[in-house]
Design goal:
By secondary structure, this protein is α+β, with helices and mostly antiparallel strands. Helices cover 36% and strands 29% of the residues. The chain has a five-stranded mixed beta barrel with strand order 1-3-2-4-5, surrounded by four helices. Helix 6 crosses helix 8. The longest helix has 15 residues.
């Protein structure tokens, strides 16, 4: 199944995790609110807000946005550095999710949220990205052509128990091929991300290479979950 805006309106991800018998990490409501409040307080008051997307937010944003544009973020790169034990995997067979980690650069898509919708849309975005506390959201500067704007980005939280760090290629392939979670196979997540990036004219050679390896492994008898 795919994540929907209705899921976010109903705070469904928190409900799923709180019902789980696996004791997966869940950010307390106080910590959740404090994190969102800090981000809102740090932005320019009564201004539109840009959100930098680098993975599933590109192909399934679920936000009400005024426009979207290609953007480049310097100082961070996109990579499979987070274990997924619910959405695209299980505690017994974890999958992998993308995160922004330090170093390099990342091309993605920036979404502009109108000022009067920022608080509500970011609340929904927090319910999507911040329930487990696996990210450390921050305001960064992204370049869109000749223009540089402040944008919200979800950088990986190195202190989180789901942080995987830099993994060997074979480990990533094995996890992506085998894992399946609440929102489907991990391999589909990779496939959709690569396809969406290509559709926007973004050629991520590392992800494309990883996708080719996953497809080849599946064709050779690997399981997708």
């Amino acid at each position: 199944m795919s994540l929907t805006r209705s899921d976010l309106e109903n705070d469904a991800l928190r409900a799923v995790l709180e019902r789980s018998a696996d004791r997966l990490p869940v950010l307390t409501r106080d910590a959740f609110d404090a994190s969102l409040d800090a981000i809102l307080a740090a932005r320019r008051r009564n201004a539109d807000a840009w959100v930098f997307a680098y993975g599933s937010l590109i192909w399934n944003p679920l936000m009400h946005f005024a426009e979207h544009r290609l953007a480049t973020l310097f100082g961070y790169h996109r990579g499979f550095c987070l274990w997924s034990r619910t959405g695209r995997g299980t505690p017994g067979q974890p999958g992998l999710m993308l995160g922004l980690d330090f170093g390099g650069s990342c091309r993605g898509v920036a979404f502009r949220i109108a000022a009067d919708a920022v608080k509500h849309e970011l609340t929904l975005l927090w319910r999507r990205e911040m329930i487990t506390g696996a990210y450390a959201p921050r305001w960064v500067r992204v370049r869109m052509g000749r223009k540089v704007v402040q944008a919200l980005a979800f950088v990986v939280n190195h202190q989180h128990p789901h942080y995987a760090g830099k993994l060997q290629e074979s480990t990533m392939v094995d996890a992506i091929v085998r894992a399946r979670g609440h929102f489907g196979p991990c391999a589909h997540y990779l496939e959709q991300t690569v396809a969406s990036l290509e559709a926007h004219g973004i050629h991520d050679h590392s992800l494309a290479h990883l996708h080719r390896l996953v497809v080849a492994t599946c064709c050779d008898g690997g399981k997708t979950g």
